[in-house]
Amino acid sequence: MSTDVFTIAGRELHSRLIVGTGGFPSLDAVAQALAASGAELATVALRRVDPSAKGSLVDVLAKAGVALLPNTAGCFTARDAVLTAKLAREAFATDWIKLEVIGDEDTLLPDAPELLRAAEQLVADGFVVLPYTTDDPILARRLQDLGCAAVMPLGSPIGSGMGIRNPYNISLVREAVEIPVVLDAGVGTASDAALAMELGCDGVMSASAIARAQDPVAMAAAMRLAVDAGRLAARAGRIPRRTYASPSTPDEGLAEFG
Amino acid sequence: MIRVNGNVSQVSPGQPVSTVLAELKLSADLRGIAVAVNGEVIPRSDWDTYTLSDSARVEVLGAMQGG
Lengths: 258, 67
Hints:
The structure holds two protein chains of two kinds. By secondary structure, chain A is α/β, with parallel strands linked by helices. Chain A has nine helices and ten strands. Chain A has a five-stranded parallel sheet with strand order 5-4-3-10-9. Chain A has a three-stranded parallel sheet with strand order 6-7-8. A two-stranded antiparallel ribbon of chain A has the order 1-2. Chain B has one domain: Ubiquitin-like (UB roll). Chain B starts with a strand and ends with a strand. The A-B interface holds A 20-24, 27, 30, 43-49, 51, 56-59, 68-71, 73, 83, 86-88, 90-92, 98, 100, 207 and B 5-6, 24-26, 31-36, 39, 41, 43-44, 59-67.
């Protein structure tokens, strides 16, 4: 696996797991889960500062040696997402942005037209854009054509833990684009992450599944193993599915007991 | 009346952005902070010189767990 490097926009990553920092009860919990996950990239949000807050998420990530991937969570329009991305670049000195433009609060599904608009503006402004998108191969191709560095299709709605509702579409997204595909949202447990990798995804992003697990550190370790296992399985090549059994033990030399 | 993160600020019009950070007891060299005034990004290099109007809506943002 050591030679199986994952590259986004020229940056080499040795872990194919991206961890979301949302939902952990404390910064200490974030640090422990990051260490167990092996992730080299973790998302952070931009919100009004709380001067009374103790500790700094930026410091926690720096100490863990994990690069920060700002997101535009909570933005409903291209305008707000672009402004948030610019503020994130100012705050964190990174051009990378996980672009989220949400359509409504019930589903938190992406708003495709606003997403395309924001992606176009941010690419033009020099950002490395990683858009959170639906599992639509046509939209993924549009995002690639605009110059996005990767696409992050959802398995199911954010925080739902419903896994990959349409594996067929994730495979189609993988076929539709040449840029990296990172399964984002919906991962509920390790097998969901393994399935994403087996479907050909280049990476998996997990936030709630780790942060809200009963034992987040153990789940972070499980996700790490699942992503590696799924990646190995995808490269190994699975056997075709068949309706009827196919004996794995040869009949030749079978005793006849009269 | 200048508002900072939705709250009325004691900072007087004509003062620079850095005054707002001081009011919040934030060090100007603090990493991971960004400022917008009336929906425009104010680069860190302008915090000492960009002065606030009476109607300024200032947002001071930082890293929060998310995503």
